[in-house]
TrEMBL record:
Pfam families: Terminase_6N. InterPro entries: P-loop_NTPase. Gene3D superfamilies: 3.30.420.280, P-loop containing nucleotide triphosphate hydrolases. This is Terminase family protein.
Length: 477
């Protein structure tokens, strides 16, 4: 074969590759210069219970459908692939399945990849047809099955199968969710959900967003209009104008719809929570304690760097235990992280001033009991609620929006309280699950207030300052 013929064959092959790519929506998904970064983060995540809380048209459903096709075809770019995959797509109703999830799945499945389609109703290829199963040719030679289920069928219809994945397109009832968790157990499969949280503080809020069980396999991401690079900005602005503030929170930003506002909307788990690292000894500052016996006792270890950034590096949070137990745990955690003590091996800590009060049930106060156990507690803290909240907010945002407060990943209860701390009636926060936040306030109120940034002087101000220095005998030039 001559050189000219070789070049011609190469050009033909490249043209055929371009043609196939144009006909293959899966190949075009996030493959161009412009990419949806949060969709990619969802696919990259290796955790087994992943959720996207997204506004309408944020791109959340797209990534759920693509994830199903990736797994069924055996072409997932970030996971170990296998043949003969079996998964479910779960919609709220069969009509919603037909109009949303089913349509998206078929969009990303090239016709030659489909071995067979089993209909629940209607004819194959009919826009009004409802699919029961799609048999997909897997690249390893096997056949994968994508089954479709609807929540209105009831929990019983979700029993019996062993699955590799379940995709929830919108929020399911709790009993359906729990049943599907059992379905992926045998195969160590995945659950992923894409939803706009319109129902308020449901079980998904508790189980996924708050992660009250501390499940290490839980992951979530918020996805809003601005995250979708393919969404027309003019159309987004028009939609925003037609919505009230509450609707915008859920339908644009994917936030949970609640009757009360968050005290700390500035808190962002993806920004303020960081992996632990080795803290220099001279960054160590003090421990702060909110005491409790029946209620949780909360204590955190606080460090500050040379720029005034604060790091919460360790946590003790436990209810129903006595002072002996808490004092022992404080010493154990301090020893584990190499925390500083005084010359006599004693720890120092801030504590709620209420700890200095004695009760009829005890001849000694909580602060005295801690001091007897070599934990010298200082009750001289500022408990001003509103000034404290303002101080916390200033550390969450900092100058020019840069945070000055960072929390190590192990401090799960402090993170949970940040995410669930709401305003109540009478312009006061709800007095619930705030023990860690209270002692955070005690600590931050001991820190110097953030200085206002200096403004650049205008030419007139500089001239005025120069004249004043001359009048005072200075050399203002």
């Amino acid at each position: 074969m001559g050189e000219r013929e070789t070049i011609r064959r190469i050009l033909e092959i490249e043209a055929e590759q371009r043609r196939r790519a144009e006909e293959d929506p899966l190949a075009r998904y996030n493959a161009g210069r412009i990419k949806h970064k949060k969709q990619i983060a969802f696919h990259r995540c290796k955790k087994r219970n992943r959720w996207v809380f997204g506004g309408n048209r944020s791109g959340k459903t797209e990534c759920g459908a693509v994830e199903c096709v990736y797994m069924a075809r055996g072409v997932h770019p970030y996971r170990k692939n296998r043949k003969d995959v079996f998964g479910w797509v779960v919609s709220l109703s069969q009509q919603v399945q037909r109009d949303v999830a089913q349509k998206k799945i078929l969009h990303y499945l090239a016709p030659e990849w489909i071995e067979d389609v089993t209909m629940l109703s209607g004819k194959k290829g009919s826009p009004s047809g409802i699919i029961d199963q799609i048999r997909v040719r897997n690249v390893f030679g096997g056949i994968s099955v994508i089954g479709f289920k609807s929540c209105d069928q009831g929990r019983e219809k979700f029993q019996g199968a062993s699955l590799d994945f379940v995709w929830f397109d919108e929020e399911p009832p709790r009993d359906v969710y729990e049943e599907c968790r059992m379905r992926v157990l045998d195969r160590a499969g995945d659950i992923f959900g894409t939803m706009t949280p319109l129902k308020g503080l449901t079980f998904v809020y508790d189980e996924i967003y708050m992660n009250r069980r501390g499940d290490p396999e839980v992951w979530y991401e918020f996805m809003e209009w601005a995250d979708n690079p393919y969404l027309d900005r003019r159309a987004a602005a028009q939609m925003a104008q037609a919505m009230d503030e509450k609707s915008l929170a859920s339908r644009r930003f994917g936030r949970f719809a609640v009757g009360e506002g968050l005290v700390y909307p500035e808190f962002d788990e993806r920004v303020h929570v960081i992996p632990p690292f080795a803290i220099p000894a001279d960054w160590q500052d003090t421990i702060s304690i909110d005491p409790g016996l029946h209620n949780p006792l909360s204590a955190h270890w606080y460090c500050a760097d040379y720029d005034g950034n604060v790091y919460v590096v360790a946590e003790h949070y436990e209810a129903g235990r006595d002072i002996d137990h808490h004092a022992r745990r404080l010493r154990e955690i301090s020893a584990a992280i190499g925390w500083h003590t005084d010359g006599k091996g004693r720890l120092r800590a801030l504590i709620d001033p209420a700890a200095s009060q004695r009760t009829l049930a005890s001849s000694k106060s909580v602060s005295e009991l801690f001091c007897e156990r070599d934990i010298l507690v200082d009750t001289n803290v500022d408990k001003d609620l509103f000034a404290g909240i303002a101080q916390v907010k200033s550390y969450l945002c900092g100058a020019e929006g840069r945070p000055r407060l960072y929390i190590f990943e192990g401090c799960t209860n402090l993170v949970r309280e940040f995410k669930g701390y709401f305003w109540g009636t009478g312009d006061l926060p709800k007095k619930k699950d705030d023990h860690a936040l209270d002692e955070l306030r005690y600590y931050l109120m001991t820190r110097p207030r953030a200085a206002l940034p200096e403004r650049a002087q205008t030419a007139v101000q500089k001239d005025k300052a120069r004249l004043l220095r001359r009048l005072r005998g200075g050399r203002g030039r």
